[in-house]
From TrEMBL:
Naturally occurring in which organism (per UniProt): Enterococcus thailandicus
Domain of life of the source: Bacteria
Protein's name according to its UniProt entry: NADH-flavin reductase
Pfam families documented for this protein: NAD_binding_10 (PF13460)
NAD(P)-binding domain: residues covered: 7-192
Length: 209
């Protein structure tokens, strides 16, 4: 299995890359600046928006760990739209490092986390554009995708416990009543899904135990 990680030098992407390498998987980093890589790994140095179908079809799985910069949060939508377009009608699977804003908080599925966020909140632009990106992803035909949301608190410095819960598209809490997951445990869950391929064309979530 050949795996590519877009954004492999970011917070989540670097931990996903580390997890894949620890399992001796065939992984390639796709980055804008290869000098930022801290491990020796095959790489493609290219802007996400310049990627083509020909670049990605050699891979069985493409992991999208792209993170839009501040002030350009709409790139969460446009970047995923570009990847969806070039991977449609191919056999390559697209796994997206999503956000918690798109998770439902009521049994009727009428309210998502983003619907409870004030528009003047500092993180609103990121939450909004990530949730809208998923809306458009769900409407894409002929694409093999999985969107994996972290818990409400996506802890970049949390420990790697090796324990997590993979759930549906609702906001879930752990045994302590907290919606939290470390990026390291999220990376485990994502790579587990890469290998298991159990949730194609589904929105799932990860929370600590």
């Amino acid at each position: 299995m050949k795996i590519a990680i877009i954004g492999a030098t970011g917070h989540a992407g670097s931990l996903i890359l580390k997890e894949a390498l620890a399992r001796h998987l065939d992984v390639t980093a796709i980055v804008r600046n290869a000098k930022k890589l801290t491990v020796t790994v095959p790489f493609i140095e290219k802007d996400l928006y310049d990627l083509t179908t020909e670049d990605l079809v050699p891979f069985d799985v493409v992991i999208d760990a792209f993170n839009a910069p501040a002030g350009k949060e709409d790139m969460h939508q446009t970047s995923l739209a570009h990847l969806s377009e070039i991977l449609t009608n191919t056999s390559t699977r697209l796994l997206v490092v999503g956000g918690a804003s798109s998770l439902f908080i009521d049994p009727e599925k009428t309210t998502r986390m983003i619907d409870q966020v004030p528009e003047d909140a500092p993180f609103y632009p990121t939450a909004f554009h990530m949730s809208q990106a998923l809306v458009h992803l769900k409407d894409t035909k002929g694409l093999r995708w999985t969107y994996i949301s972290p818990a409400a608190f996506f802890n970049p410095t949390g420990e790697r416990t090796g324990k997590y819960q993979l759930d549906d598209d609702f906001l879930h809490k752990n045994a302590q009543g907290e919606s939290v997951v470390s990026m390291a445990d999220y990376a485990i869950a994502l790579i587990d899904e890469v290998l298991a391929d159990k949730h194609e064309n589904e929105h799932v979530s990860v929370v600590s135990q």
